[in-house]
Amino acid sequence: MNAFLLGLRLLWGSGRRGRVRFLLMALGSALGVACLAAVLTIPSILTAHDARTHAREPRPGDSNVVYREFRDPYGSQPFHRVFVARTSPGPTKVPPGVDKLPEAGEAIVSPKLVEILAANPRAAGLVPGRVIGTIAPEGLGDSDDLYAYIGTTPAELIGAESLGGFGIGRSWRQIVDPSTLDILRFTLGCIVLLPLVTFLSVCARLSGESRARRLAALRLVGLSVKDTLRVNAGESVVAAFVGAVLGLVGYLGVNEIMARVGLPGLYWYPSDGRPGAATLAVCLLGCPVLAWVVGQFSARQAALSPISIRRTGERKPPRMYGTLLLVPGLGVIGGYCMLSVLGRDPSGSSASSVLVPGSVLLTGAGLVFGLAPITAWIARRLARVAKSLPVALAMRRTEVDPGSSLRVVTGLVLLVFGASLTQGVLVELDQVSRRTAPVQEYKISLSDVTPNQRQQLAQIPGVRMQVFAYSSWDRLDDGLRKDVDLLVATCAQLTAATQRANRCVDGRTMQLHDANVAYPEDPQPGNRFSLTTRDGRKVILTVPHERIAMKAYQPSVFRTGALLVPPSLAPPNLADSSGTLTLVSDADPATIRAVLDGVGAIAPTAAVEPVGIVIDSLAQLTVIRSLLAVGMVLGLVIGVAAFVVSVADRAMERRGQVTALALLGARAGTLRVVQVVQVGLPLVVGLGAAIVTGWLAESSYLITGGGAVHWDWEGLPLLFACALGVLIAAALASVPMVRRHIDPEHIRRD
Are 672 and 651 in contact (CB under 8 A)? Predict the structure, then answer.
């Protein structure tokens, strides 16, 4: 304890420089702990959301209340309505957040739905009845939840079930699928936690050389090895603990703000994001423990061999053992990539769910521990052939002390490595969450939209065309019914919305025919069908002999057997009850969300069917994108902070060497070039390795995922652009760190 207190006394007694170093260590730890708390509370936010949605789920049983659920999209958001009706007097079960169930003609809705109803009166048709109250937070998934309990009568509630109560142990309606959540946790761990450990280690080793000399002096005046290590721990642990407390306080403030602002697709209550006991323990104890471990490791040389530290003896070259971690990591990743090149499909294997994450972690660790020996080996060979004085000086310095370069660039290298993994996760989720077709269709009943609304729907940004479809139903003698679809569209629209359409002639009614999906009961040439008009008359259609050989994206309104009728020949005044309006747009998620939001704004009471996709999957993809974006932002903050702190600390530690070179006649430009080259070499090596290994890791994940995309060629230019931007920014940031100021105090000891 005395040695520990001695460390604190030496800290405050070492002048302004020591106190500034302590402050920087504390602030760096605070930033790291705030990012750590943000990552650790993401699962608790999702869990709290799912717990509330599970608790409100109605379950069948015996009671005096019947219910029926409706889950529809309102724009790109899921909209959940529960209609309830009393069958007899008596007490009833109530869901969380509600004091009583609404009576017939009444409704209890979420606060967000109240805002929508007030801003858009046309949406009142979605919630029939008078709103008598709002649902409390314990009955909602989040503050943006669209939910309503609507009272009605049993006669109007066709197909209802008896209500047994609310709350189930597990619901299939989860904000993020459990298997996807595991992938999300692993990805966030790679892009945030790995750089975070590096950053906290950097903060714990600020002014490493000067601290080592001070500890060596204490050892030479008689302090034992253990007490010397305790002296070093006194400063590191206290700074880390103070930083952990500041970081938690800062995170709590940010959580209160972000909970009210939210993320795209993800909202939460402030209490959901407050750290629990486990998170507090990890932040308040984990950061000081990491600082203690790093301090023990960094101070051991000074405690065991103080003479070599004080005399600046020759340092041992870094060991190559860390590089060996790349061998099994790249071996597994490269093996899966090779199987894909050979045409074999390794997806579906249970072993890949363990091998791929393990190989990714080994590769990331190999990048960290292998960067120093690889950089020293390259610097040694470049120094032998260098003809330029600045390059030779930079290479010799890198060869002697590659560890300082490692601390400078590791965070940025891991950031690029994690960015490639994030791209792979987004590509894989994009494949399973939407249609693989390049076009997306949206079906709306014509009875739900007015003629004016139809014109407005066609003008929504992103909508490429709209197609009117009408169905004919005729009862046969055996009691069955046959039908034919009439599609009002042109040949150009058919070609744009299908994979192939041959022999289509404008101005003529023709039948669509797909030989791959045709059935014997499809309408045959010469068959006659009738369609109903608005005034009740019948219009007779005859199936023509002319056929269009086409292949449609499935499912689609353009299906085999349908009749393609040009707008000029379409029968007038067909009944809306038998018709649908189909909008067609591109299939990228951003366009789909924009079109759904546009439909919700124009026709809020219309039921929209996004053909081939589930609105919950689209909402889940939005949540995952938001969380991964948060992870990338946190990783960027950590990587940049680690770089800035390391470069500034390195410049302070090298003032003596810079002064010596300045006294020998080195120019300011020479010293700046040396600094830039020293930072640039390990950064080029690390970023190059991160791009190659990260892209291979991403490809192995896509290959084992079973999706159609195995090689993300479109993501490579983005990775190269990011790496180039990081390299240029790092070079420019290194220039001001060198000052050609001659101060003999800096070399007094030498």
Answer: no
d(CA 35, CA 193): 9
Reduced to 3 states (helix: H, G, I; strand: E, B; else coil), residue 741 is coil
For 132-136, the CB contacts below 8 A with 24+ separation are: 132/102, 132/106, 132/107, 132/108, 133/98, 133/99, 133/108, 134/108, 134/109, 134/110, 135/97, 135/98, 135/108, 135/109, 135/110, 135/111, 136/96, 136/97, 136/98
Both tokens of 83, joined, read: 């209609």
Whether residue 59 is predicted with pLDDT greater than 80 in this model: the reply is yes
Q: Which residue is it, tokens 């791929």?
A: 356
Separation of alpha carbons 311 and 395, rounded Å: 22
Average pLDDT over residues 534-554: 82
Q: Which residues pair with 233 in a beta bridge?
A: none
In this structure, what DSSP letter does residue 574 have? B
Strand, helix or coil for residue 483: strand
What's the pLDDT at 478?
A: 43
**If DSSP states are collapsed to H, E and C, what string results for 259-295?**
HHHCECCECCCCCCCCCCHHHHHHHHHHHHHHHHHHH
With beta carbons less than 8 A apart as the criterion, state whether 525 and 544 touch.
yes
Among 203, 81, 70, which residue's Cα sits nearest to residue 149? 81
3-state SS assignment for residue 15? coil
pLDDT for 20-38, tens place per residue? 677 777 777 788 788 888 8
420/714 Cα distance (integer angstroms): 11
pLDDT of residue 482: 63
Residue 521 pLDDT:
67
CA distance 193 to 180: 19
Give the residue with greater pLDDT, 108 vs 621. 108
Q: pLDDT band for 228, please (50, 70, 90 cuts).
A: low
- 19, 27 in Cβ contact below 8 A? no
Nearest to 29 by CA among 206, 229, 273: 206
Q: What percent of the chain has pLDDT over 70?
A: 70
Q: Give yes or no for a cis peptide into 555 (omega within 30° of 0).
A: yes
Phi-psi region of 614 (alpha: psi -120 to 50; beta: other; left: phi over 0): beta
SS3 391: helix
| Buried b or exposed e, range 182-206, using 16+ CB within 10 angstroms | ebbebbbbbbbbbbbbbbbbbbbbb
Residue 78: φ, ψ to 5°: -70, 140
- Give the tens place of pLDDT for each residue, 145-163: 888 898 888 887 766 788 8
What is the DSSP-derived secondary structure letter of residue 664?
T
**Beta strand residue intervals within 52-204, DSSP E:** 58-60, 65-74, 77-86, 106-109, 130-134, 146-151, 161-166
What span, in angstroms and rounded, lies between the C-alpha atoms of 465 and 585?
7
The amino acid that residue 493 corresponds to is Q
Q: Which two tokens stand for residue 500?
A: 């192939």
- Which range (133-137, 220-224, 355-359, 642-646) has the least confidence? 220-224
Decide if 699 contacts 636 (C-beta within 8 A): no
Phi-psi region at 223: left, alpha or beta (left = phi > 0; alpha = psi -120 to 50):
beta
CA 630 – CA 42 distance, rounded (Å): 10
Task: Kindly report the number of other CB atoms within 10 A of residue 69's CB atom.
Answer: 12
**How far, in Å, CA of 387 to CA of 445, rounded?**
77
| Helix (H) or strand (E) run with residue 531 in it | strand 528-532
Q: In this structure, what are the phi and psi dihedrals at residue 483, rounded to the nearest 5 degrees?
A: -145, 165
Q: How far is CA 579 from the centre of its chain?
A: 40
CA–CA distance, 39 with 631 (Å, rounded to integer): 8
- pLDDT tens figures, 333-386: 778 777 777 777 666 666 666 777 777 778 777 777 777 777 777 777 777 777
In this structure, what token pair is assigned to residue 59?
């379950």
The sign of the torsion formed by the CA atoms of 568, 570, 571, 574 equals: negative
Residue 463 in tokens: 């909508």
- Best CA proximity match to 471, nearest among 569, 561, 585: 561
